[in-house]
Amino acid sequence: MLDKIKEKINNNAPLDKKDILKLIALLTTEKKQEIYNLADNLRAKIMGDEVFIRAIIEFSNFCRKNCDYCGIRGKNKNVKRYRMTEEEIIDNCLKVEKNGFTTVVLQSGEDMYFNKEKMGYIISEIKAKTKLAITVSAGERDIETYKFWYDCGMDRYLLRFETSNKKIFQKIHPDDDFDFRIQCIKNLKSIGVQTGSGFMIGLPEASFEDIADDILLCRELALDMIGVGPFIPHPDTPLGVNILKYDFDFYSGIIAILRLVNPYSHIPATTAFDALQKNGRDLLLQRGANIFMPNATPQKYRKFYLLYPDKPCVDEGADDCSRCVIYRITRLGRKIGKGPGHSVLNKKNDA
Ligand code: SF4
After folding, report:
1. What is the tally of helices (H) and strands (E) in the chain?
2. Comparing C-alpha atoms, which of 336, 291, 296 is closest to residue 313?
3. Going by CATH, does the domain composed of 14-339 fall within 3.20.20.70?
């Protein structure tokens, strides 16, 4: 069963939904190691051994929305809210560059205090003062805002669709519309922003078919980066009573399949995998991932940005995380990526 799929991969033929469902089924058998190896080899062949580092600054945990799985949803009264000042954000970007990193990710809830102009100012200042590539992740905005931020110097944007199943999407996103979410992603691509999106594995009611569709939607959207994490129930949310559906090997196997279907997309080893298993992100880097995103948020804010419980690295400072990430990557025999690590989707078009 796996031989035919291997042949397709070797011939650069795209995997279809049937192939993906077969691979998902094999994750619960001893064949899973072969799938991890296939993904690791494909990652090495297409993306090389470099691991690009994107340092995240969680600059505000205010959010106007109430996604049913999210620990910082607006209605969660147990969250102490914070907003970094513009100068604080810019200063911390200078530190990110000083620590040797080439990309900063500015992430927040959907906090409209950081409107078009304020965010534009921050992006322009970072561009003027550093050589950092800038990724923003601040929710759904109109196309004019995205365009303005792009003109100010924003390189990339992250906006996950979370699930390709429209019914589930509507159920867990009381403030959102699936079609609009997808339109936002398409708008970003149309402007020329390197666009990242992705989904959650193991949402209540989501089936293997849904996971296969999630993976295929990533390919259909031609994403420059695909961020995927396990669904980890947060007790202060409407979905907090659900338990983890799968084990670590299954979740990380989905990352491997994601790589097999999207060979040219950057795939981060997302932080949530360390919450599932100690050094989980290291294993992901050996199962298809090629990006690491250490936390560069000032230590005093970290414990207030808990999208899910038991988030790792909340007691460390940015310098600790910088040292740790370099150690973890080199220990695997991999190299730290040089330069900004921009999208390589054009490499696919040249192939
Ligand atoms: S997932 Fe994002 S938009 Fe939804 S509540 Fe959390 S921070 Fe807000």
Report:
1. 15, 11
2. 296
3. yes
Task: Output the pTM of the full model.
Answer: 0.96
Of 149, 9, 122, 102, the closest CA to residue 341 belongs to: 102
pLDDT over 90 (residue 242): no
* pLDDT of amino acid 89: 98
Pocket lining: 337 vs ligand 1, CB cutoff 6 Å: no
C-alpha separations of 82 from 72, 79, 112, 117, 241 in Å: 11, 9, 14, 20, 27
Domain map (residue ranges) of the chain: 14-339
Pocket test for ligand 1, best of 56, 64, 73 (most atoms within 8 A of CB): 73
Q: Is the pLDDT of residue 314 over 90?
A: no
C-alpha–C-alpha distance, residues 289 and 276, integer Å: 16
Q: Tokens 């992006």 belong to which residue? A: 123
Distance of CA 46 to the CA centre of its chain: 20
Q: Residue 73: CB within 6 Å of ligand 1?
A: yes
Ligand 1 midpoint to CA 307 (Å): 8
